[in-house]
Amino acid sequence: MTQNLQIELTGVDKHYGGFHALKDINLSIPNGSFVALVGPSGCGKSTLLRSIAGLESITGGVMKITDEVVNDMPPRRRDVAMVFQSYALYPHMKVIDNLTYSLRLKKTPKAQARKMAEEVAATIGLETLLDRYPRELSGGQRQRVAMGRAIVRRPKVFLFDEPLSNLDASLRVHMRKEIRALHDRLGATSVYVTHDQIEAMTMADHVVVLRAGVIEQQGAPLDLYDRPASKFVAGFIGSPAMNFIPGRTNGDGTSVDLALDGQPTLRLGRPAAANQDVIVGLRPEHLSMASTGDNNFAVRVGVIESTGSTTYVGAGDRNDITVVLSDRRNISVGDRVQLAIDPDKVHLFDPITEAAL
Amino acid sequence: MTRNMNRLYLALAIIFALVYLFPLYWMYVTAIKSGSEIFSYPPTFVPTDPQWGVFAHVWEIRDMGRFIWNSLVIATGTMVLVATLGTGCAYVLARYRNGWINLALFLVLMLQVLPASLMVTPLFVGFSALGLLDYPRFAVILAVTAKAMPFFVILVRATFMAVPAELEEAALVDGNSRIGAFWSVVLPLARNGVLVSAILIFMQAFGEFVYSKSIIQDVSLQPASVGLNAFMGPNTVEWNNIMAYASIYVTPILAAFVLLQQRIVAGLTSGALK
Ligand SMILES: Nc1ncnc2c1ncn2[C@@H]1O[C@H](COP(=O)(O)OP(=O)(O)OP(=O)(O)O)[C@@H](O)[C@H]1O
Ligand SMILES: [Mg+2]
């Protein structure tokens, strides 16, 4: 009951023939936590999730669920529930039968199974739809049935594979909160795959960033935001993406010259190695437009986009320096403006290895 | 412009259908003509004096009940055997993809190419060696099963491929075994395709001739196709009786096809879902 680790992966590898899809994955998921797997398309998120479900067999390493090695255990004995991106509702069964499918397999008495399904249906707003077939439901309703089918089993682990990607934007925001609330209420352990870093940041306790089958970095969402371990993570987490500007540190390593018009210099929060080429990372929301003040550099405004609440400014020689402003400014295209940044918020990356410095 | 084209196509389709169906019409019409009307020139397209009694007469003199029964035994046996063996085979060929599967598929297609008249001699020798010729209807069922299997497997495989693998995976995660997932999710969704293919096999076996003719010597065990052939001696003039025989033989199959045709077409084209 009180084991702390629900899922533990040690050195997990997955090969598809000659293709190495997962490389030395080490991941510990504590009981009750919500873990998000993020990364660009094709990085192996689904493969990792399906390996945990038992739908793919891993080719190396050890996978444990509640202290039991499950490497060769078929999915039905792992006690995990999965919500598929396509929902995978059984088209020939009514909603109620979709919900009770797993209970019937466990030989739950019919009346009891029905009662459990009705309870779950009530919590997620499906009570009136029980006698419909999946084809008679909207996308959002199907999504709920898929959730309900997972919940009704009270599994040890929930696995979600991009469950919200087929919904419209506002429903997505709503379901985000609802899924997290359900997770908290059920006290379950959840692994959630998404390519949307905002979903990952807002829902998860622990975010795992995958790239080409390798875990690039994992940690609490704000840790990844504040201390990205590599340029890849820095660019992936946060929206709009971090600005990257080539530069070179000065003789004493306390400041950096940017490769921009006029070679402006920025002070650094922490000293870095002297006289080395670096990539400077500046988050758009950390840049402020200050005509005076210190630690600033001048750029030319090239693009202004405003959504009303937020203004996005594209500046610099190729308009590739993004600035996010939450107040309205009297600026226009062609102006030269000063951008200032707190020295502690300047990130440096190695131009070759892309590791954070 | 396109309206006129559509009409043209429709007219062409009707003409082709008429040409194609004419022999069928001629069969029915000839059956109820009197002996002299059959040979009258020019031929009559609508019989002047329909002889409705011919069907009962032919049924009686040719002992057709027995022939039709044998045809039914062979067709049913073949359908059951093909469906039970072929469904599993089609499923495996649909789900697992690798070089060996491609080879198996190639061999299956290859079997389809070989004509029955070529296969019958080795089969006859083989069956004789195994003593199967003592149960000739069963031997024919085996032979026709082998012949019809590729067709069934290829049709049903396409149906299974239309069932998304994720549905099956959902069933596995929900706690089912592979076999359980197959029975409770895949098969119900592929049901139409399997049923339709089985019916087509039934119809094919119901009209089978080459194997039955060579393997079944005992008249009392022969199917209607062989009976019809025996009826058509070299000097026969009983065209009306022969046509009546043929009518009795094909009408049930035709009727079944017409009744089921919507499901058959749907089952073959749309796959299993939606
Ligand atoms: N059955 C398979 N055989 C061979 N390669 C596969 C197979 N399944 C996935 N792959 C490869 O493994 C890699 C990871 O695939 P995966 O589906 O896990 O990506 P993903 O991160 O989920 O991407 P997406 O965000 O597009 O869903 C991809 O390069 C893919 O081509
Ligand atoms: Mg995926």
From TrEMBL, chain A:
Keyword set, alphabetical order:
ATP-binding, Hydrolase, Nucleotide-binding, Transport
Q: Name a Pfam family for this protein.
A: ABC_tran
GO BP term (any one): carbohydrate transport
Tell me its EC number(s), please.
3.6.3.20
Q: Which top-level enzyme class is recorded in the Swiss-Prot or TrEMBL entry?
A: hydrolase
GO molecular function term, any single one:
ATP binding
Show the GO cellular component annotation of the record: ATP-binding cassette (ABC) transporter complex, substrate-binding subunit-containing
Gene3D superfamilies, A to Z: 2.40.50.100, Nucleic acid-binding proteins, P-loop containing nucleotide triphosphate hydrolases
Query: Its domain of life?
Result: Bacteria
UniProt entry tagged with the keyword Transport? yes
User: Which parts of the sequence belong to the ABC transporter domain?
Assistant: 7-237
Q: Which protein family is named in the record?
A: Belongs to the ABC transporter superfamily.
Give the protein name, as stated in the record.
Answer: sn-glycerol-3-phosphate import ATP-binding protein UgpC
TrEMBL record, chain B:
Entry-linked PROSITE patterns: ABC_TM1
Which keywords does the record carry?
Cell membrane, Membrane, Transmembrane, Transmembrane helix, Transport
Entry's InterPro entries? Answer: BP-dep_ABC_trans_perm, MetI-like, MetI-like_sf
Gene Ontology CC terms, in alphabetical order: plasma membrane
Domain of life from the UniProt record: Bacteria
Q: Which GO terms describe its biological process?
A: transmembrane transport
Which chain regions cross the lipid bilayer? 7-28, 67-93, 105-132, 138-160, 181-203, 242-260
Q: Which residues form the ABC transmembrane type-1 domain?
A: 68-260
Location(s), subcellular:
Cell membrane
Tell me the membrane topology, using the record's own terms. Multi-pass membrane protein
**Which SUPFAM superfamilies does UniProt cross-reference here?**
MetI-like
Any Pfam family hit: BPD_transp_1
Main localization is membrane
Report the sequence similarity comment from the record.
Belongs to the binding-protein-dependent transport system permease family.
Q: What PANTHER family does the annotation carry?
A: INNER MEMBRANE ABC TRANSPORTER PERMEASE PROTEIN YCJP (PTHR32243:SF18), MALTOSE TRANSPORT SYSTEM PERMEASE-RELATED (PTHR32243)
Protein name, UniProt field = Inner membrane ABC transporter permease protein YcjP
Which species expresses this protein natively?
A: Tritonibacter horizontis
